[in-house]
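FAQ: What does the model actually see?

It sees only this:
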Amino acid sequence: MTNMSSEGPVRRRAGATLADVARAARVSTATVSRALNTPDLLTKETLGRVHAAIAETGYIPSLTTGTVITNRSRLIAIMAPPTPLELFDTTVRAAVAALDDGGYQTLLGIYERNATREKIVTQILSRRPGGLILIGLPMSPDVRALLVESNLPIVETWETPITPIDMVAGISHHDIGIEVGNFLLRKGYQRPMIFSTDSSRGHIRRYGISRVLMEAGRPEPRSIDHTLPGTIGEGRRSFARIWEAGERPDVIVCSSDWLAQGILIEASVRGVRVPEDVAVVGFGDFDFARELEPSLTSVRIDGAEMGRQAATLMLQALSRSQRERAKAPRVDIGFTLVERRST
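And it is asked to produce this:
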């Protein structure tokens, strides 16, 4: 969008400044500052012009007061979902430690799943970070546009998107699904079921599993969705429902170790033997997985290495020019399927 002023066109662009807003609104920078800080001092007409110019230029007001905003902020923002700490904690901790060693401070933003993510991203950008590390951020077109327009170094983690915004240090959930599907075939399971979560990552793994089984001539396995990240209680209740309904899968693949633990608890209460009557596969390989009875087969992700790689990519990007950053690197951390006594 272009707006003509006496000084020429004003275009929406990354990193719009106070001066850009002033030019679009045909006012002084002092007037723009008053509109943001003391709006009662301005007329409604002037205030409306300033707000329209802010929307047009994409300017994000800084919430950092009393400091000079520069192009070399020493603050890196990390955005993570409000899931139990075990899932992403090692990634966050490793990234924070590596960034601290590199001389950068970190700001951790937790986004609620039902909140307006565009608003949360705007609030983070208003702190003028030097870069962003995203942990499993669901990406609407509006959120993606905000991030692209920020022109900041960005590292996406915990997945490997087909069209990333910038850099990636993650894992391929499709490859995980393929590996788990082949594992089920090697073990000879005939009636698999999937306890998934209502997330893109869980659905991608489910697709990979189903693809392998169907290409081998097996029917598509039944799948039950659970609220992210999938809790012990949900695992218990879902297993109770299918067992009481007479369904008899010979293996259940879960999108989290918590769902899998819930199955093991409910199976024990009902006298259902694992793995003789039903086998169980988890995801995450948390510390408790090897301590369960029986010990849990699970997909292990090196979250700490993912955090270190994300921080390394960020530090490298911050040391390069925009032109040098044109080819954004992608790092696939990989995974390990750890077989134990639950299968």
